[in-house]
What we know:
Blueprint: H1 25-37, H2 55-68, E1 72-76, H3 79-89, E2 97-100, H4 107-114, E3 118-121, E4 144-150, H5 159-169, E5 172-176, E6 184-185, E7 188-189, E8 196-200, E9 213-217, H6 220-230, H7 233-239, H8 256-287, E10 293-294, E11 302-303, E12 309-313, H9 315-318, H10 322-331, E13 337-338, H11 348-351, H12 379-388, E14 389-392, H13 401-416, H14 418-431
Amino acid sequence: MSKLALWGGTPVRETAIPWTNTMGEEEKAAVVKVMESGNLSAFLARAGEQFLGGPRIKEIEAMFAGKFGAKHSISVNSATTALHTALAACEVGPGDEVLVTPYTMSATASAILMNNAVPVFVDICSETYNLNPKEIEKWLTPRTKAIIVTNLFGLPGNLPEIIKIAKQHGLYVIEDNAQAPGATIDGKQAGTFGDLGIFSLNYHKVIHSGEGGIILTDSDKLAYHCQLIRNHGEVVVDDLNDEDTVVLGSNYRMTELHAAIGIEQLIKLDGFLNMRRALADQLTRGLKRFKGLKGVTVPKGYEHSYYVYPIQFNKDIWTIKRAVFAAAMKAEGFPLGEGYVKPIYLMKIYQHKRVYNQTQYPFSFIDKPVQGYQKGICPVVEEMHEEKLIIADVCRMPYTARDIDDFLTAIEKVWQGKEELRAYEKNSLSCS
Length: 432
């Protein structure tokens, strides 16, 4: 057995895999063309043609709508502002509750607070890490207005079942599809199942323009509301003498520069996904030879985008803690994430219920809250965060099939050295 790198042995990989710039000559040429035009943003916050932006904005919106099969596409400057816009378009506000997974980027829940509503957290499925439809009913109240479904790690949630429940109770469904562009269920694109779907162009997503977001919807009314919220819509409804629409807008506009980059990246999406899926398939097959490590589960009819690759670690089989395994893998040249994110409801903002200065609004707006954000309300999420889940960011450029083989070799090396690691862990605990 080779000496573990943790003890000074030669690591499987001696140099870290770098982050790779996916920008090419196409993106450079597109940016130069916009720069030379002198028109970096063509939005005007008044009723009229420029209210909807310039030529690249309209082009990227048309391309997203066509690519994913939606009637309307609305570009914004981030997926975070897209979430806020989508909730506001659904008229979510004070006194409302929105169901959401606690295992997602904080903005998915923060957008609810920004609309002065209250998040209610729903536990996840242990196989897919997505919101569990069977957990929805127990959190529903007359105040529930919407459900946000995060398609986590690149895998769509159980959207058919969630939408069925939502329709029974008259709820909006918003898909946070930031991590799963190109993922599908029975051929239908993730991000197009709900009333609105959110896509991200943040710099570390599958495709990106540095920052940016896209909202997809088939609803004329919701699209109109999103366009208003994006661009100081209170002025526009005043211009139009629209007495029926209530809106408070902001500047959530995407620039022509970001749109130009996003257009070229969207063209490359299928190629990026093919590469990610090939690496992920290789990794899934390779993990099957290891006890105590469970690779991705993809339900029948689903296609994964592999934003990252989640692995479940079984400490009882490995006889070491996840942190020790991760430390050993890092020493071999493969750093891993442990547990993804802390369950959102355990963050201080929810524990203290402090959002706006020293008040407890919007939590205080609800007399009898359905959820107290105490530890234990979502046990599957907590178990994944504290003990089981490992995140491997290895299914992206510039990783190759050889790198996946090296990753699996590193696992084998750590497995062979687990007895030493167990002794190391025991001694460390006895000294602490």
